[in-house]
């Protein structure tokens, strides 16, 4: 065999193989590589969007946490204010109740003093009658002299 014919035959086979590869194998391979490249690019873009979303979510979470803290602080302040108001109301009610009890006790004491004075007047009148009876050495009728005894009570 001739070297030139072998070289020529190999060139013809190479070009036929190149044409077959270029026509049937290369386009699906390039298409698969392009699809893979777009998937990778989409994945990177999604990762970037995910990072941005994560940062946005972190900011929203920090803002929500800050709002929750502020709301909690406000609720605590409101609760303290309500507790203070309740304490003041209870204190005012207790003072009013104490004043009512003191007034009632004073009224009761005055009634007892009045009853004691009346009892004392009656007793003094009785003692005066007995004393007068002893002085006069005769018995004085308390029923007959009731008006005189009432006048004596009034003077005492």
TrEMBL record:
Membrane-spanning segments: 6-26
**Source organism's superkingdom?**
Bacteria
Coarse class of the protein's main subcellular location: membrane
Provide the protein's localization: Cell membrane; Endomembrane system
UniProt-listed Pfam families: ATP-synt_B
Write out the GO MF terms.
proton-transporting ATP synthase activity, rotational mechanism; proton-transporting ATPase activity, rotational mechanism
Q: Does the keyword Coiled coil apply?
A: yes
CDD domains, per the entry = ATP-synt_Fo_b (cd06503)
Q: Which UniProt keywords apply?
A: ATP synthesis, Cell membrane, CF(0), Coiled coil, Hydrogen ion transport, Ion transport, Membrane, Transmembrane, Transmembrane helix, Transport
Give the UniProt entry's GO cellular component terms: endomembrane system; plasma membrane; proton-transporting ATP synthase complex
Cite the record's note on assembly: F-type ATPases have 2 components, F(1) - the catalytic core - and F(0) - the membrane proton channel. F(1) has five subunits: alpha(3), beta(3), gamma(1), delta(1), epsilon(1). F(0) has four main subunits: a(1), b(2) and c(10-14). The alpha and beta chains form an alternating ring which encloses part of the gamma chain. F(1) is attached to F(0) by a central stalk formed by the gamma and epsilon chains, while a peripheral stalk is formed by the delta and b chains.
UniProt xrefs under PANTHER family: ATP SYNTHASE SUBUNIT B, ATP SYNTHASE SUBUNIT B', CHLOROPLASTIC
UniProt family annotation: Belongs to the ATPase B chain family.
Q: What job does the chain carry out? A: Component of the F(0) channel, it forms part of the peripheral stalk, linking F(1) to F(0). The b'-subunit is a diverged and duplicated form of b found in plants and photosynthetic bacteria. F(1)F(0) ATP synthase produces ATP from ADP in the presence of a proton or sodium gradient. F-type ATPases consist of two structural domains, F(1) containing the extramembraneous catalytic core and F(0) containing the membrane proton channel, linked together by a central stalk and a peripheral stalk. During catalysis, ATP synthesis in the catalytic domain of F(1) is coupled via a rotary mechanism of the central stalk subunits to proton translocation.
According to UniProt, the name of this protein is ATP synthase subunit b
From which organism does this entry originate? Polynucleobacter victoriensis
